């Protein structure tokens, strides 16, 4: 672990002390002095080394935890987080493929796959009638056993009649739709919106209520332009970011 004492805090600066400390911690990480998984000094050590109050040290660490730069483990300390999971916005992306390319192990925990009925909003997205039968698939998508996305897919029941939970346990949903039901997804429309994680979502995603997140809504279409899936996802803002390239 590198020497963090290369910079001093400027007690007379207009920049708050906690923000100065945040920048020093980030510089240590960006410089490679601290690698993902390394434990950083405790709040008491930061207080002693920088002659600051406990609240200042605590505020700096809490802000970096919320940004996903640091990760607190109860009873063990605060550690440098793994890099954020980046996913492109161009064309289709595969969560599993992105995880594997980053050297991480993707896993899906199926919370339920049930028959339900379309609300007015979902019916509008899928161009079906309110009350029509749906297959509702709720999954917790994980990277290295860390929950990242809480995802719920809604598919018109008549399109995938007879589908079983075992079908999608270890296989991409779109692959199952194509191989078992002849449904080829060719395009999708996605909408993103910043949100805060709610209480029941926090239980699944293992972060505190009120943490930053992205609400991702996707409507997928087959070749004839018919919508075949509406997906509602809550994506942890501290662990994921999406990017696009402008040409």
From TrEMBL:
CDD domains (alphabetical): WHTH_GntR
GO molecular function, a single term: DNA binding
InterPro entries tied to this protein: Bact_HTH_transcr_reg (IPR050679), Chorismate_lyase_/UTRA_dom_sf (IPR028978), Tscrpt_reg_HTH_GntR (IPR000524), UTRA (IPR011663), WH-like_DNA-bd_sf (IPR036388), WH_DNA-bd_sf (IPR036390)
Species this protein is from: Guptibacillus hwajinpoensis
Keywords, sorted A to Z: DNA-binding, Transcription, Transcription regulation
SUPFAM superfamilies reported for this sequence: Chorismate lyase-like, Winged helix' DNA-binding domain
Protein's recorded name: GntR family transcriptional regulator
A Pfam entry, by short name: GntR
GO BP term, example: negative regulation of DNA-templated transcription
PANTHER family: MANNOSYL-D-GLYCERATE TRANSPORT/METABOLISM SYSTEM REPRESSOR MNGR-RELATED (PTHR44846), MANNOSYL-D-GLYCERATE TRANSPORT_METABOLISM SYSTEM REPRESSOR MNGR-RELATED (PTHR44846:SF1)
Annotated HTH gntR-type domain residues: 15-83
């Amino acid at each position: 672990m590198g020497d963090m004492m290369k910079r001093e805090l400027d007690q007379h600066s207009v920049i708050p002390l906690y923000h100065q400390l945040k920048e020093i911690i980030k510089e240590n990480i960006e410089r490679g002095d601290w690698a993902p998984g390394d434990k950083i000094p405790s709040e008491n050590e930061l207080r002693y080394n920088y002659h600051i109050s406990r609240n200042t040290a605590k505020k700096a660490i809490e802000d970096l935890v919320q940004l996903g730069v640091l990760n607190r483990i109860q009873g063990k300390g605060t550690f440098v987080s793994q890099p954020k999971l980046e996913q492109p916005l161009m064309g289709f992306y595969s969560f599993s493929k992105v995880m594997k390319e980053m050297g991480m192990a993707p896993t899906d925990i199926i919370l339920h796959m049930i028959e339900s009925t379309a609300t007015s909003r979902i019916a509008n997205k899928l161009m079906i009638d309110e009350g029509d039968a749906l297959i509702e698939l709720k999954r917790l998508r994980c990277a290295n056993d860390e929950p990242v996305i809480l995802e719920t897919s809604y598919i018109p029941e008549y399109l995938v009649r007879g589908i079983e939970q075992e079908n999608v346990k270890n296989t991409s949903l779109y692959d199952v739709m194509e191989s078992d039901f002849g449904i080829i997804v060719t395009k999708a429309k996605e909408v993103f919106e910043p949100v805060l994680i709610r209480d029941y979502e926090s239980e699944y995603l293992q972060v505190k209520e009120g943490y930053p997140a992205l609400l991702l809504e996707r409507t997928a279409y087959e070749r004839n332009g018919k919508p075949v899936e509406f997906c509602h996802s809550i994506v942890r803002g501290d662990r994921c970011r999406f990017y696009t390239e402008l040409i």
